[in-house]
Amino acid sequence: MPAPAALTHATVLAQTSEPWIRWDWVSSHTDQILTALREHVILTLIAVVVGLLISIPLALLARRWHWFEAPVLSATGILYTIPSIALLALLVPWTGLTRTTAEIALVSYTLLILIRNIVAGLAGVPADVREAAEGMGYTSTRQFGRVELPLALPVIIAGIRIAVVTTIGLVTVTAVIGQGGLGQLILDGLIRDFRTEVVVGSVLCVALATIADLTLVAIQRIAMPWTRRGRTT
Amino acid sequence: MNFLGDVVAWFTTASHWQGTNGIPHRMFEHVVMSAAAVGAAIIVAVPPSLVLGHLRKFGSVAINITNAGRAIPSFAVLVLAAQIIGIGAEPAFIALFVLAIPPLVTNSYVGMADVESEIRESAQGMGMTGWQSMWRIELPMALPVVLAGVRTAAVQVVATATLAALVAWGGLGRYIIDGLAQRDFVQVFAGAFLVAVLSVLTELVLALVQRFTVSTGLTHRHKDKNEPFVGAATVVEPISVTQGEMH
């Protein structure tokens, strides 16, 4: 009995060693690739920005009321443990196969990283520095803005870097609910057994993560010259 | 809510507990595959990393491998493995094995390299050979960090094994992937629930293992929950006490 056409096709492709990349496909699909890349960047940016908007107040509350810290870290920690594909699937019945679903999941994963690093960054400000600021007559708001925040920023930026790089990787998974930017290329390549798409999607994803990380390092070095010496990573 | 009622009905349907697509079999596949991948990665990655950590050689490679690994999406690793080996269990195993390696290498290295010089010198001063010092002093002290790496790797592998349903392997991901393909969101939800439970259980079980294998004389040393995510420090105390890495 003959195998179904699609299956035969896939088998033949696998056997004839489809090349890893077909440049003619790349040049004729530049628009599609760039759209996927743009989508990937947008999904990542929204996730990290919204993640920051949620994390900053929560971290500040955790700093003010110490009892609040453990529950916040545990709750975001449990969210962090749930596999991305499972979290997406849990949300689908309520928010559908939409960008909202993708973003809720992506934001969830940034929370633990960001909150932990903001809390840790602020907690890491040496006590004698705080006392010196107090002794110089700084009000608590001014002390926070002028002394504590600048000293905590390197750790906070480190958190943002990890959140950004992690999110860029996770966005690929949201392809299974029809979002996913570059993940869409990877998934499509998998389904059609077309290696070029898989390679293009994967390589661009790694490149995007690397560029984003280096950009944040550059921002840190320019905005915070005092962190230039010594290790920042 | 009606939807949740349907999910409960799904779980109480007898046929969902039998055969190759039944919950016990899928759960078994998922656990065995994850354990095999993490076990193999431990055997390959941990011993050399411990030795390198003891010798404090190749530190930047050992530390940066995790940062680099984070930039490579596990989904891409899985699909690329399927492109190279074909679909089924083998690419799933290879991909999971590869993904488990970076946190194991980094944590094993950092755990050993971070043992204070004073302690190593004391061991030397007491007449211990390098091997004795490594085996009897440094390794027990590094154990919490090494086990944190195992936890990170295991949670990540359990999560990614779910995605392996995309390359035609079984496991609990089948319910999610098949459910999405059939627009059967009850099945999707049920599968996701099972995966989430398995992940949290993995985390908890390994946290218990860590608690019971680490010398009580050391446990006070790792209470600082707020150690930040900073490159290697990330891995030293991966996330909060209940957490591992991802996905």
Report on this structure.
The complex is a heterodimer of chains A (233) and B (247). With 233 residues, chain A is mainly alpha-helical. Chain A has a single domain (19-227), classed as MetI-like (MetI-like fold, Orthogonal Bundle). Helix content of chain A is 79%, strand content 0%. In chain A, helix 7 (127-135) runs antiparallel to helix 8. Chain A is elongated. Chain B is mostly helical. Chain B is 74% helix and 0% strand. In chain B, helix 1 (2-12) crosses helix 9 (185-213), helix 3 crosses helix 5 and helix 6 (117-125) crosses helix 7 (130-163). The model of chain B is unreliable at 230-247 (pLDDT under 50). The interface between A and B is large, with 61 and 54 residues.
Summarize the structure.
The complex is a heterodimer of chains A (233) and B (247). Chain A is an all-alpha fold and 233 residues long. Chain A has helices at 5-15, 23-28, 30-64, 69-81, 84-95, 99-123, 127-135, 140-171, 182-192, 195-223.
CATH architecture descriptor name of chain A: Orthogonal Bundle
Order of helices and strands of chain B: HHHHHHHHHHH
Q: What is the global morphology of chain B?
A: elongated
CATH superfamily of chain A: MetI-like
- What is the average of the pLDDT values of chain B? 83
Encode the helix/strand succession of chain A as letters.
HHHHHHHHHH
The computed structural class of chain B is mainly alpha
The number of helical segments of chain B is 11
What fraction of the residues of chain B are assigned to beta strands by DSSP?
under 5%
Keywords:
heterodimer, A: mainly alpha, MetI-like fold, 10 helices, elongated, B: mainly alpha, 0% strand
Topology, pairings included?
The complex is a heterodimer of chains A (233) and B (247).
Chain A: H1 5-15, H2 23-28, H3 30-64, H4 69-81, H5 84-95, H6 99-123, H7 127-135, H8 140-171, H9 182-192, H10 195-223
Helix pairs in contact in A: 3-6, 3-8, 3-9, 4-6, 5-6, 6-8, 7-8, 8-10, 9-10
Chain B: H1 2-12, H2 23-55, H3 59-71, H4 74-85, H5 89-113, H6 117-125, H7 130-163, H8 173-181, H9 185-213, H10 216-219, H11 232-236
Helix pairs in contact in B: 1-9, 2-5, 2-7, 3-5, 4-5, 5-7, 6-7, 7-9, 8-9
